[in-house]
Design goal:
mainly alpha, 2 domains, 0% strand
């Protein structure tokens, strides 16, 4: 996933800066396209290698801290551009060049880390859908960001026509504020792996505690039900035994023939039947 963010390094956070600087250098300072391209060359030389070799850094450290470091670089970059308001080589070397290098480094690192963090927690079954959503959001952010920056720059320039760099400075301050908001969002809403693991442990402990309390509350009732069942079974067993004994006695005495000698065995068998007392 390290190659994917590279195509968007200049399309979201650096494109507004490029557009502002290109309009300034070519329309106001009347630089040639070749001269403007040469002044933008350090951005490509820095962003490319960082995009290719940033994945080991992202894998070694927690993604949240890498994201915050990248946003700090972008904050420094966008906060430096407003002061590059002179058409001199000194102004370029003092403000434009450092801001471009720092911004390119932060932008490349930001997109690599974002992709790694997103796809690290994405199931394989929906990875294609998540990739399309990520790319769509990048394209949408690039379009909306460029439109907002251009509108802001044009509006301020119309209000202050005597100040050539006023609109450009306002556009860079807008990017500066946007980076600060993104930094705050990552600090508040991004949870590290340790925080996620701690939350899972707390949920498991809460479930175990709930199960233990539930089992403790149900145990006396279970004991009472078992005792009641045992008593019912003993009563039923005793009643069945009594009925069986009487049935045996009747069955033995019924076919006895008449006569004094033959009556004895049946009577003795009746006497031998033992009926448990208290079970009727």
């Amino acid at each position: 996933m390290s190659a994917r963010p590279h195509s968007f390094v200049t399309s979201r956070s650096l494109t507004p800066s490029h557009r502002v600087k290109v309009q300034l250098w070519q329309d106001v300072y009347h630089w040639s396209p070749i001269k403007s391209a040469i002044h933008f060359l350090p951005i490509g030389l820095i962003a490319g290698p960082i995009t290719l070799f940033a994945e080991p850094v992202v894998g070694r450290f927690e993604q949240k801290w890498v994201l915050l470091a990248a946003l700090v670089l972008l904050i420094i970059s966008s906060g430096t551009f407003p002061f590059a308001n002179e058409n001199t080589q000194r102004s370029y070397l003092a403000y434009d060049l450092p801001a471009s290098i720092i911004g390119a480094s932060g932008g490349a690192l930001l997109f690599v880390t974002t992709s790694v963090a997103i796809f690290k927690n994405t199931p394989d079954a929906i990875s294609g859908t998540i990739a399309s959503i990520l790319n769509s959001s990048l394209q949408l952010g690039a379009a909306v960001g460029s439109a907002v920056v251009t509108s802001l720059m044009s509006g301020v320039s119309k209000q202050k026509p005597q100040e050539v760099y006023a609109g450009r400075a306002a556009a860079f301050w807008f990017l500066f504020a946007t980076m600060i908001l993104e930094f705050a969002a990552v600090v508040v809403f991004y949870r590290t792996d340790a925080q996620v693991a701690r939350a899972k442990e707390q949920e498991e402990d809460a479930e175990k505690a709930t199960s233990a309390v539930s089992g403790h509350e149900q145990s006396p009732a279970s004991v009472e039900v078992r005792e009641k069942t045992s008593v019912d079974e003993s009563i039923t067993g005793g009643t069945d035994l009594c009925v069986s004994g009487y049935a045996t006695a009747v069955a033995t005495a019924a076919p006895t023939p008449k006569g004094p000698l033959s009556a004895s065995p049946s009577l003795s068998s009746v006497k031998d039947v033992s009926v448990p007392s208290g079970n009727i």
